[in-house]
Specification:
mainly alpha
Length: 126
């Protein structure tokens, strides 16, 4: 079983995370998709802390010596997976920014050349 102190810490952490999420959503500092993950994450923390039998059963089934080790490893794994997907999304956005920057540079060069050539043609006609 999880100790009472750990259960209280997890409950406080889940409630604090939920309050922070609601504040961030209210201030429009977070996308709804990201907020949904963190809401589910905090509810999972809350669920495991209110019902310590769940991590105990899972840790026994998998072969952990202690439910606390299972809880920490489980949440670390979830956060690593989340970090991987976030990094993948960041890489895609960085590539998109690079492509857009290149397109803007090409458009500006094209605009400059048209304007410059237009001025030359007017000078030659004069």
């Amino acid at each position: 079983m999880l100790s009472l102190a750990l259960r209280i810490i997890l409950i406080v952490a889940a409630i604090g995370l939920m309050a922070f999420l609601l504040h961030s959503i209210k201030k429009s500092k977070m996308r709804i998709e990201d907020a949904m993950f963190w809401v589910a994450f905090s509810l999972l923390i809350l669920l495991m802390s209110i019902f310590p039998e769940i991590p105990s059963l899972l840790s026994d089934a998998i072969g952990f010596q202690s439910p606390v080790n299972f809880v920490f490893l489980f949440f670390i794994f979830i956060l690593i997976v989340r970090d991987f997907f976030s990094n993948r999304r960041i890489s895609q956005l960085e590539n998109r920014v690079k492509e857009l920057t290149q397109q803007i540079a090409i458009d500006r060069l094209d605009h400059y050349e048209r304007r410059h050539l237009g001025e030359r043609d007017e000078d030659e006609r004069s």
